[in-house]
Amino acid sequence: MSIVSVEKDFDNLTLLLVADFDATIERVWQLWADPRQLERWWGPPTHPATVERHDLAIGGEVSYFMTGPDGERTHGWWRVTSVHPPRLLEFTDGFANADGTPNAATPTTAVQMQLGEHDGRTRMQLRFVYESREYMEQLERWGAFDVYPQSVGQMDALLTPTQEAR
Amino acid sequence: MVVGEPTDEALDELFHALADATRRDILRRSTGGELSVSRLAEAYPVSFAAVQKHVAVLERAGLITKERHGRERLVRTDPDAVGGARQVLDELETAWRGRVDRMADLLAGHGG
Lengths: 166, 112
Fold this sequence. Notes:
The complex is a heterodimer.
Chain A: E1 3-9, E2 14-21, H1 25-33, H2 35-42, E3 49-54, E4 61-67, E5 73-84, E6 88-95, E7 108-118, E8 121-131, H3 133-141, H4 152-159
Antiparallel strand pairs in A: 1-2, 2-8, 3-4, 4-5, 5-6, 6-7, 7-8
Helix pairs in contact in A: 1-2
Chain B: H1 9-18, H2 21-29, E1 35-36, H3 37-41, H4 48-60, E2 64-69, E3 72-77, H5 79-107
């Protein structure tokens, strides 16, 4: 079994997931960094993903859609907030409108993905934090979708574990 | 994001309401149904109007109700609705368990 642990913090809407893989760090990184490989695992078999844009640089964008059984498309986007190949990727994950622009009316998740060695295997640690719509609106007011790196400090603050976690 | 997630407005309201630390704190404080909005507002370093707005968001999402009690309106958390936070994270977990399984299949060379 790949999944080592799953922890959920309902107070802070945070999920931590740890998984180990029988592969090198570089090989696991490629699952994220190569859009053709990302397409093969992001959507479930009923909703395969098509990646349209894929730029893993700070401020870069990934956009994709998933096609359901009736041909309906669900669009999504990432905004990359931190990237250190092949060990760290941080991004905001959200829904998009049909034209690929972020849909501000739906919730977004801050995702942190870390890779490291563990007992001769590669350990992937994923951390998800739901963000408030106010936060997204603030980002937009700052023009963060054009100059996203300015807000990376804010993102780091969101990803810092809080004392009230139980 | 998570596939198969209801995208209706009710769930959007719920997500929105829960994804804020102050609002989650208001939910915790209001389980006994004894506090008015002005009493709640005393606990936060923000304006009364801001707390009133948070309460309105929670009410719209169905997470709290307001009950008239003499001259005051008391805020009470709806215990069933708060299960929504659990639902939101459970759906995220389910989606990512599937993704991790598919990643492992790809790495093993039989990812289709």
